[in-house]
Amino acid sequence: MSDKNSMSPAVASLHDEQARQRTGKEDLQTGLEDTFPASDPVSQTSPTTATATTEPAEEQEAEDTPKVDEALAAVRARHDDPETGRAMEEIRALRSELGRITGSAQEMISGSARVAKSEIDSVQNTVIRQVRKHPLQAIGLAALLGYAWGMTR
User: 0.85 cut: is pTM over it?
Assistant: First the structure.
């Protein structure tokens, strides 16, 4: 095998990865042989375990309590603030206006759909009347359109 300096970086990386995989299998096999009588095989990775905190739980609770009290006081102050009350009223008014706008938009869409349907029905009735009035012209026009469409394909 040629030396690593003359290999491309991809080939060198492949060889390094293969070497790591071979080493990993050997470590697992060695660990398995060392713990053979045990019921569970060893893992190649070591599990992490939780460690105890250095502060007692009472001290930690005492430190956390003022923070909670401060947060509750801030929330109460915001709730009692007149600016917050005005902002909430504005939000309610905006929601109400949005509901009205949404209802108006739905009515407009519904009305537009009815108008479009009536226009389509009107055009369809006009075509039916014209075909019944001039059947030979309708057949000729249909044949011409079919021929032109067929030529474009």
Answer: no
